[in-house]
């Protein structure tokens, strides 16, 4: 509704790129319980449409009459970022005039929690102030979150002409694979650093830029130190003008929605000049040798924002954003 896009775009040039990491896992659990307890006849006839991950994009397409390409992005925790990045490419290469993009996830269910616990990825802390601890020595796992963000992407002159509210400009997108392990990141951060370098190079970055990075920052022991390595590699260790935080310390890890929510955090940081903090960060891990926003938000006029998302399967995405220069 805020975008005001629907009455201004040819439906055949109106596209969807939308991410979700798991799909309808809550639906699966509910209907499987019916199958076991009440028999096959009690399983919903809508079970399959409610389960499959492409239906997020499909439902948006139907609701908003988007008759252009409608594609899901299913790259685990990088799904939302990949959706936005691919939407950016669609606009850049003239495959669409406008794209609804973002990510959604609702996966706090018994089986999902059990799976994350048993792979030793989930924090089991009972202290709400010491559960999600990105970049902290005490970190011991992620906290699952749920949510969604949707954005409308379109070419600048078109958006300006119709008086759209413009939050910022996507100026770069990097997408790589680790080709290493189904859950562990590459030990030299090769894929994640390359994704960042791709986005940085496209963004027109110079050493005079003041940069904010919204880190993937899951709070797992392995991810955070290797993401810090990736950041150092991407900037050749020159981090004087680079500040980083993990908003997962506040939102939890929203899996396929995380990249979309964190992209919005970057856009608001650019727009408002306020960088979100890494809550609960008290004892910075010396292996995470980056400049971190700790405890409280800080005012800072940044010129470039990066959002990192890294997913199981070795999927890496980095989005770059700038303020729109009128």
Itemize the secondary structure elements and their pairings:
Blueprint: E1 14-19, H1 25-38, H2 47-51, H3 55-64, E2 70-73, H4 79-92, E3 98-105, H5 110-118, E4 147-154, H6 156-161, E5 169-177, H7 190-203, E6 211-214, H8 221-234, E7 242-245, H9 248-251, H10 258-272, E8 274-275, E9 298-299, E10 304-311, E11 315-322
Parallel strand pairs: 1-2, 1-3, 6-7, 6-10
Antiparallel strand pairs: 3-4, 5-11, 8-9, 10-11
Helix pairs in contact: 4-10, 7-8
Q: Explain this structure to me?
A:
The chain is α/β, with parallel strands linked by helices and 326 residues long. 32% of the residues lie in helices and 19% in strands. The chain has helices at 25-38, 47-51, 55-64, 79-92, 110-118, 156-161, 190-203, 221-234, 248-251, 258-272; strands at residues 14-19, 70-73, 98-105, 147-154, 169-177, 211-214, 242-245, 274-275, 298-299, 304-311, 315-322. The protein folds into two domains: 6-128 and 144-161, Peroxisomal Thiolase, Chain A, domain 1 (3-Layer(aba) Sandwich); 168-322, Thiolase/Chalcone synthase (Peroxisomal Thiolase, Chain A, domain 1). It is globular, with a radius of gyration of 20 Å. The protein has a five-stranded mixed sheet. The chain has a four-stranded mixed sheet with strand order 2-1-3-4, with helices on both faces.
